[in-house]
Each structure stands twice: as C-alpha cells, then as structure tokens.
Design a protein that fits this description.
single chain
Length: 195
C-alpha cells in the first residue's frame, strides 16, 4: 500500500515537473503576492499535451489504486485469553523459517487479552526471540535489504517498545494492534514472494 501511494505521488510530481513557468508571470513584481494565477493570453492558448497526459495518467492511476487500498483494510480480531503456548522458541538460522516463526509468535502476542495464562512468560520469551532475530539477521545485507525484514523490524520495534514501556502483562491498545496486523499482512505477502 505504501508503495502504491508513493507511485501516485511520484507521478503527480512528474506532471508538475513538465510544466514550464510562465515568463510573463515571472516578470510580474507582484508575482508572489497575488492570489489568482496570472497567465498571459499566449500561454492560455498554448497546447500542453505532455502535461495534460501526465495529469490524466495520474488521475487514472489514483482512481484505480486508492479503491484497492481501501479494500485492503485489515480486520482486527478480538483479544483472547486462550492460546497455545509455543514450544518452538529460538532461531533455526534459516531466514524464511525464522521470519515466519517470529511473525506467528508476534501475531499471538498481539491478540492476547489482559489476564491471559502465562502472558508474562510469553512476552519475555518473545522479546528475547525478537532481539535474537534482529541481532542475527541485520548483519547480512542480502537479508537486511528485503522488504519482509524491514517491515518485520518495524513491527518488532513497536512490540518491543510496548513491552519496555508497559511491561508484559498489559495488552496492546487497539490503534497499535491495527497497525501491527497491517504490517503482519505485508510481511506474510513479502515472505510468500521470497522478498
């Protein structure tokens, strides 16, 4: 979604880059003080094919991309006290397997409600696993450059920051949970594409 919005913004900037400043307008000493655009009669009749094309292309792209972004809305599941405590903590030193495992543990942690059984133990184990994951994999440029790693790194920072600020016994607020679930979906897509 971020990439699509960046493409739309880049296209809009490109459309403006091709527009030439009006020489008559630039000669006006009150150019920066006027509210209304000042265009010479010659400039109003001048064809602007390239500019019109890029503006139209930008509008069409925005119209097609933004509804898709709206449909990609993530539903945040209710918090629950019931879960299966994982027994597979630690790294296997295979990036794809470790990223998927850390992500799945983070999804469980994000969905835990206050008073869940062994919530503090889960949080401590997860924080250690997240720190080990980042410490190990950020050293490798071929892994650190992957979109799945950068998004997972961001998610890890959010969850680790919550644990540092509020402790392991307090669930994540709804706004933070929504953001994390969106990032988990992006991570899952990137891992499926080997990115």
């Amino acid at each position: 979604m971020k990439t699509q919005l960046l493409v739309v913004a880049a296209m809009a900037a490109t459309a403006n880059a091709f527009s030439m400043p009006d020489p008559v307008r630039l000669c006006n000493p009150f150019f920066f003080l006027t509210d209304q655009p000042y265009r010479s009669l010659a400039r109003q009749n001048e064809p602007t094919g390239r500019r019109n094309f890029l503006q139209t292309a930008t509008a069409v792209t925005a119209a097609s991309v933004l509804p898709a972004a709206a449909l990609a809305e993530i539903t945040v599941p209710e918090q629950s006290k019931e879960y299966t405590f994982p027994s597979d903590w630690g790294l296997t030193y295979n990036y794809e397997a470790d990223a998927a495992k850390v992500r799945s543990h983070m999804v469980i942690a994000t969905g835990l409600a206050k008073g869940a059984d062994r919530m503090e133990d889960f949080g401590k184990n997860l924080k250690k696993e997240m720190i080990d994951f980042v410490s190990y994999y950020r050293r490798f440029p071929n892994v650190a450059g992957k979109p799945s790693f950068s998004t997972l790194y961001t998610s890890i920072n959010v969850l680790a920051g919550h644990y540092t600020s509020y402790g392991y016994k307090y669930p994540l607020p709804e706004k933070r949970r929504k953001r994390l679930y969106q990032e988990y979906a992006e991570i899952d897509k990137s891992l499926k594409r080997n990115r």
